[in-house]
Amino acid sequence: MWIRVVLALATVVLVATGLTAAAPREPAASGVPRFDHIVLVMFENRAYAQIRGAADAPYLNALADQGATFTRSYAITHPSQPNYIALFSGSTQGVTSNDCPQRFTGPNLHAQLAGAGLTFTGYSESMPADGYTGCVSGTYQRKHNSWANFSSVTATSNRTFASFPSPADFASLPTVAFVTPDMCNDMHDCPVGTGDSWLRTNLDAYARWAKTHNSLLIVTFDEDNHLAVNQIFTVFAGARVEPGSYPGKINHYSVLRTIEAAYGLPGLNAAANLSPITDIWT
Fold first, then answer.
1. Number of CB atoms found within 10 A of residue 66's CB
2. Per the structure, how many domains does the chain have?
């Protein structure tokens, strides 16, 4: 009796002050939480051992310490471009080189999300204008912009990184965003430390915001430094992530499958053959 009275009084107080108890966000049936926003950043051509524990990657290692780090994460192939396409569409689409242009009409993450009433935007640093489909412009190269290769992706979803929302506007981010630094800041043409500093400067505010706004940051690499093993650094950081090192083997298709599962979407192409990542969530 007294317990019911106390609970009733507590409810009255909450209502009177304009506060209500937030319902916990449960994982989807897939075992992956449904995030308000996911931002994925792709870097270039570094092996796992060149990042994890490296003195010139202090920010990436700080993310690893507070997030879920995969000690057996692998790219799909070499060279760069097929890996970007694989992560966006669940297939390399037969691409085996960095030649440009590539044009495809098949299913992809943008089309999947749009079909579910959700949104996708790709942000490319140093791309000269929104909707640009040229192959090279200064330190921008389309081989690292997989969404530009698909005819279903409109110009409004292929944007410059200058269009990425400021911290005050993170809530306006699309459901899923892919971010590609330019050829220097992605570590392709510049040292690891350059990319590490770029990530801290440009995405640390989002990483911190994500923890308290049901959102997720994924940082990964396209491929290793041209070794046969192709082991790369991948970390998930943000809300609902249980920090630690995870030894389960994953690849770009696993990451795509996990993003799809967060929104109840089926796996695309080769991603359909893999299970989403489910052991890292609180």
1. 16
2. 1
Count CB-CB contacts under 10 A for residue 105: 9
For Cα atoms 17, 20, 24, give the angle at the middle one, nearest 5 degrees: 160
Q: What is the CATH number of the domain that holds 66?
A: 3.40.720.10
- For the stretch 213-255, pLDDT in tens is 999 999 999 999 999 999 999 999 999 999 999 999 999 999 9
- Distance (Å, rounded) from C-alpha 48 to C-alpha 54? 10
Q: Is residue 278 part of a domain?
A: no
How many other C-beta atoms lie within 10 A of the C-beta of residue 185? 24
| Boundaries of domain holding 79 | 28-273
Give the strand pairing for 250-251 and 73-74.
parallel
pLDDT in tens, 139-173: 999 999 999 999 999 999 999 999 999 999 999 99
Q: Is residue 250 part of a domain?
A: yes
